[in-house]
Amino acid sequence: MPTLFDLCQDTEPLKKLQKISADEKKRRYDEIIRRHRETHIFDSYEQALDYLVQHPDKRISWHVKTLQYLPDKNLFLSHEQEYSFDGVIPYNVTKTYTREELLSGVYDTIKERGWDLEKDFKDEYGKLDYVNIYKD
Questions:
Q1: Which range of residues forms the domain containing residue 31?
Q2: Pick from 29, 54, 60, 121: CA 20 to 30 A from residue 71's CA?
């Protein structure tokens, strides 16, 4: 099957088009990386919870939970989904957790499953991959 390069005598326009396409792919990739680095700022789970305490008006994604800090109760409010026995997902499920409950839940699961925090949960920049600032 011939390609466009085989069929066209003048390949300069096609080369220009390929360059434009490659430049656009690079621009899109750079934008994805910029947004990732803007939201994935935490080196540790403790740092993520400290961020919420310092910024009670903000939220973070914590694996499958969305967390925010309740300063008056010194608890973390979680919006999450739970499956009932019949498989139906109840909506508007909210729970509160202490700092210790959140940390022990993560670290106990990592230990039980034999995962490596640095290798399995951090991105190429050394930041937590599954914990990030929640953007509205």
A1: 10-37
A2: 121
Task: For residue 1, tell me if it sits in a domain.
Answer: no
**Lowest-confidence pick of 1-10, 49-58, 66-75:** 1-10
| Same-domain status, 129 and 90 | yes
Q: How far apart are CA 16 and CA 56, in angstroms?
A: 51
- Domains held by the chain: number: 2
* Cα–Cα distance list, 66 to 17, 75, 76, 109, 115 (Å): 43, 13, 10, 18, 23
The predicted pLDDT at position 58 comes to: 96
Q: What's 126's DSSP letter?
A: S
How far, in Å, CA of 122 to CA of 103, rounded? 16
Dihedral sign for Cα atoms in the order 115, 121, 127, 128: negative
C-alpha 79/C-alpha 62 separation (Å) is 10
pTM for the model? 0.78
